[in-house]
Amino acid sequence: MDDNLIKQISLFAENKPGRLANIASKFKEESINIRAFTIAEAGDFGIIRMVVDNPDNAHRVLHNAGFTVSETDVLGIEMKDVPGQLATIADLLGKHNVNIDYAYAFVTRTEKAFLIVRVSDIEKAIKILNEGGINLLTMNDIQSI
């Protein structure tokens, strides 16, 4: 099951001009590629969540730059880029009492969409999604997207 765990980097950052540019520049210097990210604003601060191709290096770079940073296990779900795919996944998890704490998604030019989710019970979610024929991503998949 560990193959299906994606490491997400989360950091607490001041909500001010140039902060994201600073983070992105540090990643550029270290050749860290951001695959997906979201920012949740909370007044003067925000939480940036991201999936990168090298999470251990990203964590080190951000920590050394003085950011409050953590790693969280999330799931990466591959979907067809058609209406109803999110409903299928959300319904499958909901019927088995697995809550989606938060999610963010991105689409590629290959008619695929990818959903990053944090769930209330990750091991149960992996089992349910696998049994439901849903393709889960690995860190190798993230690195090659």
Describe the structure in your own words.
This protein is 33% helix and 39% strand. With 145 residues, it is an alpha+beta fold. It folds into 2 domains: 2-73, VC0802-like, CATH 3.30.2130; 74-144, VC0802-like, CATH 3.30.2130.10. It starts with 5 loop residues before the first strand and ends with a helix. 26% of the residues are buried.
Short description:
This protein has 145 residues and is of the alpha+beta class. The protein is built from 5 helices and 7 strands. The longest helix is centred in the first third of the chain and has 11 residues, at 19-29.
Instruction: Give unreliable regions as ranges.
Output: none
Q: Give the terminus-to-terminus CA distance.
A: 21 Å
CATH class descriptor name of the largest domain: Alpha Beta
The helix fraction, in percent, is 25-40%
Report on the biggest sheet.
Answer: 7 strands, antiparallel
Number of domains: 2
